[in-house]
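Researcher: Let's continue the batch. This sequence belongs to Betaine-aldehyde dehydrogenase, and it's 485 residues. Same format as the previous ones, please.
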Amino acid sequence: MSKFQPAGSHFIGGEYVEDLAGTPFDVIFPGTGETIAQLHAATPEIVSRAVASAKQAQSGWEAMTGTERGRVLRRAADIMRARNHELSVLETHDTGKPLQETLVADATSGADALEYFGGLAASLTGETIPLADGDMVFTIREALGVCVGIGAWNYPTQIACWKAAPALACGNAMVFKPSEMTPLSALKVAEILIEAGAPAGIFNVVQGMGEVGAQLVADDRVAKVSLTGSVPTGRKVYAAAAAGMKHVTMELGGKSPLVVFEDADIEDAVSGAILGNFYSSGQVCSNGTRVFVHRSIRESFLERLIDRLGNAVLGDPRDETTSFGPMVSEAQLAIVERYVEQGIEEGARLVTGGERLDRPGFWMPPTVFSDVTDRMTIAREEIFGPVMCVLDFDTEEEVMARANDTQFGLAAGVFTRDLARAHRVARGFEAGTCYINTYNDAPVEAPFGGVKLSGVGRENSKAAIEHYSQIKSIYLRLSPLEAPF
Ligand code: NDP
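Model: Same format as before. Here are the structure tokens for Betaine-aldehyde dehydrogenase:
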């Protein structure tokens, strides 16, 4: 087996664990279709052991000072940065994303989260609320307990860290289940946390498909579930968590609008559309896949877009000059191919791309449809691939109504030089994350998350603290206590 084969499928209680009784599955490098590792899904015993390990470690971790916990997280961030190249190579093999991307967007983003929440850990305090006669209430911000993280396959390192960093900063322990398509990098996060001084059991990783996630969510010892995934999975996980009245964070899918007004800087707007549709081969939840372009500039926008797409380098993802990689799997490629067929059948104009490349691996080139109308399937459903829909519009009022006419509400973007309009439009978007003259930035300092079907709760920023801690109010009476009898 390759150098990417881990010492065990799972990471529990500070060490690699294997259980050959679990269903075996292959880890495939999407650039060629080669198998790079073989793992085993967690059996119910393994899942239970991981939760027990987290439960046992959590109270000691919470009892440490925030400064001590923060130090561990910041050390982990430093280790991740020092190993960025090695981790990026692994991420590229796990996901197929080009090294050019993984070097700057995966372990680095994970390290940012560890550093940011490591820095916040020491400042998580309650407040004192004065009452009459010197009585008071003081509040304590407590950990929730054992948190479960369940990840999608597009940003495995980032998702693991975006969930683990705030959870651990607040004194929780975590059991993380990566997508079975990209199981390797979360194990590295677990290794690094141990090396940074985290107590064994604070961050555990178990592998497997949906049923492993479902077992974790149903476990009575679990206090919170944070899922990054699709809306259908979100519905199931939210419902299962509700049965145990568990806290949830849901980071789900989207079909986000990107509106380009006639006064926009066309080069910037084309850059935004490229970043919002083709980065990570379009496998990004917040992508602005409905690109509304003012009718008066549609042709010039399309012309520049096609010119610029000609510069994309579809090569070996391990080569740093490659700027566009494969889809994560044959199955995801088949989904995208089906959407392309539907787009053509429903009358959209295929401007470029649309046909899988005749080479090993799972390749769909950047694909653009124009003449897309609001009711077409490709304009309504999340495709999660490199497929951009260009729609025309005439007025701001019209485009806002159409942009918001979706059940999703993850992100939205606007390109215009008119500052007042930019603000008006951003405020009018029904979306959790909005962009003015940019697209898809996700710094750890800013809250990230969706409204409507796109999610519940926020990741990153100080807002995430609210989702990984709870407030206890303690009443203190100094004055004599009166009672009716
Ligand atoms: P899925 O919803 O298919 O899976 C997400 C995770 O949930 C996987 O680990 C999956 O396991 C697991 N899972 C599946 N069923 C259950 C269940 N019943 N109980 C518990 N866990 C379960 O999403 P994908 O992995 O296909 O990722 C793509 C989706 O994720 C897109 O819709 C995308 O928009 C969304 N996404 C959202 C982001 C955001 O921040 N808003 C960011 C990235 C992606 P397995 O697949 O291994 O069987």
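Researcher: Any comment?
Model: The first strand starts at residue 10 and ends at 12.
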